[in-house]
Design a protein that fits this description.
The complex is a heterodimer of chains A (370) and B (499).
Chain A (H helix, E strand, L loop, with lengths): L2 H16 L11 E11 L2 E10 L7 E9 L5 H5 L7 E2 L5 E4 L1 H6 L2 H9 L8 E5 L3 H8 L7 H12 L7 H9 L6 E7 L5 E10 L2 E6 L1 H11 L6 E5 L3 H7 L7 E17 L5 E15 L8 H29 L6 H8 L5 H7 L4 E11 L6
Helix pairs in contact in A: 8-10
Chain B lengths: L19 H4 L4 E8 L2 E8 L5 H14 L8 H5 L8 E3 L2 H9 L2 E6 L6 E5 L29 H9 L7 E8 L5 E8 L5 H12 L9 H7 L12 E3 L2 H10 L2 E5 L5 E4 L11 H4 L2 H30 L7 H10 L7 H21 L2 H21 L5 H14 L5 H21 L1 H17 L1 E2 L2 E2 L46 H6 L2
Antiparallel strand pairs in B: 1-2, 2-4, 3-5, 4-5, 6-7, 7-9, 8-10, 9-10, 11-12
Helix pairs in contact in B: 10-14, 10-15, 12-13, 12-14, 12-15, 15-16
Classes of the chains: A alpha/beta (370), B alpha+beta (499).
């Protein structure tokens, strides 16, 4: 065979072998951007928000709902309602109903794990009540990604830890940690707002955390850049001393940066862990008359804040230990340090493990003074 | 000489006059003049000779030849005050020389020994030698014209060294064009020179109209869209090629040189890079390379994303892209090919039209057509931006032939993207890289210094390093002497200022 005919053959073979994929031209498909899963009379109720970009510079939202007996076939069945083929490649937000989350998220996670088209940076959330209500409440915003933006924004600039499908899948399949997801609720004005976190045991939601505990979790699991917390400084003696000229004794602290470092002190009989958290923070408002605190005051405030944070973080750890959930990934950390790690043995002792969190806090002040 | 023109009918004439083939043309003049009792025949092509020199020659013949009975052509020769005058008895040379613009003088009746006085006319050569197609803001604007002697003069005046060797040869069975090969003795590798000479000698072609025809005829691979030799009308570019050890070739009647062996990266080099500070020169060179990559793949990427890979579109662009395509009735492939063809129409029409009309065409094409196409919902406005940007980016290459190749290659890549999406683009890129790695220019690798990797030559490839760094000539040219200048002595002025 000559060289040329070999080349032609190769190109022909490529045409045949690669076959023809169906085209999915971007304006001729229905893009699912947000999806919600609920449990309704022992059936799965799936509702999706489809982006409608018919007009220039405006996006609109279409809501479709379907019932099914399992989590697997809702996606193909949804197609029966759509005027254009439904595609999940741009799915970026998934809300799970409270009942659904308590029943177990393993099905949906394994569907997503096998779907290569879905972005690994997709966001998850658990609704308080029904997920459908949450995504319905986001429709007036005319933005099919409203919920995703809400969660991402809070992760980047506020107290919420960062989430992604990638991380959630890792937490689900890893034996040494548990899933935690943000929790959404409707407030009195029917607006969506964040309401702490939900921690899972395996695939089932078991524990709810408050916003403040969410921040503690963030500090323990990632190098946080943002986050604010209100700390009461009124140690009894001081409160009386200051009572005359202060309206309240709270200090609003803004975290500038934090880093966390775990250390395994010993691994027998049960692991003992030291977690050191370094926080650089600035005081936004300390309820004193001076705008800026003097050196002595700042040292006192630092010590108070340190005590405050330490106790909060240690309380969170105890709480999780009592429920035998490990959103911090302590098991994963110990696994990476020990030779024959056994998750069953580890979590048998988990409740009584000695895990100590230490906080080092540096307060930084700026502004003007008399 | 094996001429393709049929001249059988004159072979029967006896006695055979070598000038018979010329007489058929009306611009051939053959007159008799008598000087001191001797009759001479004077023959020339009136369309080829310089009328002033003709007058001088005739005049000096009439004035100076002493009367004698025996005619010695060498005596006559010494009285003609024109250079390169000679006596010959070769029939072939007589005709050739007449066709080069010589005056032929022979005594009546003695047809086989003649005097040839070269006096080629210089009309028809453009006097304006600005660089029109390879413009630069900084640096000389001297370009070449359509006359070989002028062009060689331009080179000689900037390379005043006996080591600049010019070899001439005649090519083209009908045009009989002079072709000059230039190289620096002691720098250019002799193999490159002899290879160029051999290839040119091996050509049998009828009329050489431009050097770029030679470019194709001697190319190592005639199937490639890429130019294998740098074509340039700039003097500084040719001189730079010569001093780094390349061989330059120009043919009579052509305003451009080809230089080789060239690499792919030579086509992204502008002489301006060397006139600007090295950081700026490097930056602009990188911009050019980025422009070419963008130009090759931007439209194809649009087609691939819009047709197959909607999931990788960033969420911020999703709404914009979809709404811009909302009412377009064609698939993205047809849309892209439609716009790309429109741009090619505009370019082609603009190149054919006179300058002023060309500008109007640009406005009509660019603004009115683009607006109308979007309003009629035939294309999306995002694609208009992409296509016009990539057309613009394809023109950043300083050598026009390369930008043609780039624009041509866009189409197969768009087609691949329409069939296989990003996978198709990857296949196209693989084919392109394999093809480029296999290409050779005058026997040297086209992808040097990247394939084969020559770390030292990287200093003047993607970037233009400072003059302290580029002391040595590029190694893929295998120059006989590597050092261009002494590195330590570039900045003498610094030491003087410190006094």
């Amino acid at each position: 065979m000559t060289r040329r005919s070999k080349g032609i053959l190769a190109v022909m073979a490529m045409l045949l072998l690669s076959s023809c994929q169906d085209t999915s031209i971007v304006n001729e498909i229905s893009l699912v951007l947000t999806s919600a899963y609920d449990l309704k009379d022992n059936q799965i109720h799936n509702s999706v928000l489809i982006g409608e970009y018919t007009e220039k510079d405006k996006s609109d939202v279409e809501l479709l709902e379907i019932d099914s007996s399992n989590s697997f076939d809702v996606m193909p069945r949804m197609n029966m309602q759509a005027k254009e083929p439904i595609e999940y490649g741009q799915l970026r937000m998934m809300v799970l109903g409270e009942a659904y989350a308590k029943r177990g998220v393993g099905d949906i996670l394994s569907v997503l794990a096998h779907n290569t088209r879905v972005s690994r940076r997709m966001q998850f959330a658990v609704a308080e009540g029904k997920a459908l209500d949450i995504i319905k409440a986001s429709i007036p915003a005319h933005d099919p990604l409203y919920l995703m933006k809400l969660i991402e924004q809070n992760g980047n600039f506020a107290n919420l830890p960062h989430f992604s499908l990638h991380q959630t899948l890792f937490q689900y399949f890893s034996k040494g940690q548990d899933i935690y997801l943000p929790r959404l609720r409707l407030n009195d004005q029917d607006k969506i707002m964040l309401n702490g976190l939900v921690v899972f045991k395996g695939e089932k939601a078991v524990l709810q955390l408050t916003d403040e505990e969410g921040l503690c979790l963030k500090l323990l699991t990632e190098d946080a850049k943002n986050g604010k917390f209100l700390a009461q400084t009124d140690q009894e003696g001081e409160a009386k001393k200051q009572a005359a000229n202060t309206t309240d004794n709270d200090a609003l602290i803004k975290i500038l940066s934090s880093s966390v470092k775990h250390r395994m002190v010993s691994d027998t009989p049960a692991a003992t862990l030291d977690s050191k958290i370094h926080i650089r923070a600035s005081v936004i408002k300390a309820s004193r008359n001076d705008f800026l605190l003097s050196g002595q005051e700042i040292k006192e405030l630092e010590a108070e804040m340190k005590r405050h944070m330490e106790s909060k973080i240690n309380q969170l750890i105890r709480k999780c230990q009592r429920e035998n959930v490990d959103p911090f990934g302590f098991g994963e950390y110990v696994r990476s340090r020990t030779h024959h790690w056994n998750n069953e043995a580890f979590y048998k002792n988990y409740g009584s493990m000695d895990i100590r969190a230490h906080v080092e806090l540096t307060l930084i002040q700026d502004g003007i003074q008399e | 000489m094996n001429s393709p023109v049929n001249d059988n009918q004159h072979k029967s004439n006896t006695p055979h006059d070598p000038l018979d083939p010329c007489r058929r043309s009306d611009d051939f003049v053959m007159s008799t003049m008598t000087v001191s009792g001797l009759a001479f025949e004077v023959c020339y092509y009136k369309t080829l000779v310089d009328s002033h020199l003709l007058e001088v020659a005739i005049h000096s013949l009439q004035e100076r030849i002493p009367s004698s009975e025996e005619v010695n052509l060498h005596d006559v020769l010494s009285h003609i005050p024109i250079e390169e005058t000679k006596v010959t008895d070769q029939d072939e040379e007589m005709v050739q020389s007449l066709l080069q613009g010589s005056l032929l003088i022979r005594p009546c009746g003695q047809i086989h020994e003649v005097i040839l006085v070269p006096m080629p006319g210089k009309e028809g050569v453009r006097s304006d030698n600005d660089t029109e197609n390879e413009f630069s803001v900084i640096g000389p604007k001297v370009g070449f014209v359509e006359a070989l002697p002028v062009n060689l003069h331009l080179i000689r005046t900037q390379l005043r060294t006996p080591n600049l060797i010019i070899k001439e040869m005649t090519l083209g069975s009908l045009s009989q064009s002079q072709v000059a090969i230039l190289y620096m003795d002691g720098i250019a590798h002799p193999e490159n020179v002899s290879r160029m000479e051999d290839r040119l000698k091996g050509i049998d072609f009828d009329a050489v109209l431009d050097t770029s025809q030679l470019d194709q005829l001697i190319a190592d691979n005639s199937l490639t869209p890429f130019p294998l030799f740098t074509t340039t009308e700039r003097r500084d570019r040719v001189i730079y090629a010569l001093i780094t050890g390349q061989v330059a070739v120009i043919s009579e009647g052509s305003p451009s040189f080809i230089t080789g062996p060239s690499t792919l990266f030579d086509f992204f080099v502008s002489p301006e890079d060397y006139y600007l500070p090295w950081a700026l020169g490097s930056f602009f060179r990188l911009i050019r390379i980025f422009g070419v990559i963008f130009s090759l793949f931007a439209s194809a990427l649009y087609v691939a994303l819009m047709t197959f890979h909607y999931e990788v579109i960033p969420k911020e662009l999703l709404g914009k892209l979809i709404s811009s395509r909302q009412n377009v009735p064609f698939p993205p492939f047809v849309e892209a090919i439609f716009l790309e063809t429109t741009i090619e129409f505009l370019r082609e029409a603009g190149a054919r039209l006179p300058n002023r009309i060309g500008q109007t065409l640009g406005i009509v094409g660019g603004i009115i057509l683009g607006q109308a196409a979007v309003e009629a919902a035939l294309t999306s406005n995002v694609l208009i931006i992409i296509v016009s940007l990539s057309a613009l980016a394809s023109f950043v290459t300083p050598i026009y032939k390369m930008s043609n190749a780039i624009r041509f290659l866009r189409f197969p890549i768009i087609i691949l993207a329409a069939i296989w999406g990003a996978f198709g683009i990857a296949i196209g890129l693989c084919f392109l890289l394999v093809h480029l790695s296999r290409l050779k220019s005058l026997g040297s690798p086209y992808m040097a210094p990247f394939y084969p990797m020559r770390f030292r030559d990287l200093k003047d490839s993607l970037i233009r390093a400072s003059y302290e760094q580029t002391v040595k000539r590029p190694s893929y040219l295998r120059p006989l002497s590597f050092i261009r200048y002494k590195p330590g002595r570039i900045h003498q002025t610094n030491q003087l200022d410190e006094e």
